[in-house]
Fold this sequence. Notes:
The structure holds two protein chains of two kinds. By secondary structure, chain A is of the alpha+beta class.
Amino acid sequence: MYSESGKTTKAPKQILFDTAKRVFENAAYALLSEEAESVGEVMGVEIEFSGERYGRMRLLVPYELAITCAANMLGEEEHSAAAREYCEDALGELLNMITGSVLPRIFGSEVDLHIGSPRPTGVRSLPLPSACIETTLCVEGHKVTLCFENTRA
Amino acid sequence: MAFNILIVDDSRVMRSVIERSIEMSGVPVGRILMAENGQVGLEALRDNWVDIVFLDVNMPVLDGIAMTDSMRRDPFLKNTPVVVVSSEASDAKKATLFQNGAREFIEKPFTPEKIREVIHNVLGIWEDNQGPETDSF
């Protein structure tokens, strides 16, 4: 359901989940699965946004899944050198798409925002700020974590 | 008739995604040119015949808005169709891009079917090479 400004009345967590699902399926050709089998090494990217709202989005993905997504997006074999070389680029682009789609749905399309470039983020156990909304998905048997943090109005 | 296409995006991965979507769309393609920013994109346009440009917005060196502005001011480039392909859907940026002459806006991610629809709309392609209906004389 949508208000006149294009802002959805769905809960933000559901917006994150639905958007991430759509992006992984349509852009990376990676499907949701019932369960995550293993974690392995994890890599993360984040994007900051600014303007009328401030905050950041963070995406944490197992390294193996990032390579799979890169291979799918590049049209390469799964463990090709190109897929390994560009897996961080692929992850950044996936978060870029998620961010660009999520923010108008949460804040409204009339809100003017600048979305920064994706950059690697350290993968470590951080205490989540109280303003952080997190959702997890199981993609191709891997656990994916997406965080949305609105730091100030 | 095959169309020459220019893809302008700073992401190697996204250039590949767009290229593959174009190839999967079924639209007859001649050459596909790639550029990693707006500056290189303008050079490609001045050196090659291009039927349609797929353009990202946020790029280093020269971004999508600046590139469309340069094209608008160039008598040889101002009529080259531009389709903006972007993750951002803010009304303000869309308005600026359309004012600069962009014909369509596609939000990432997109399907090959969407690419086909947009190319058909922008280039005025009809099915079975039929033109628009005309009055008989």
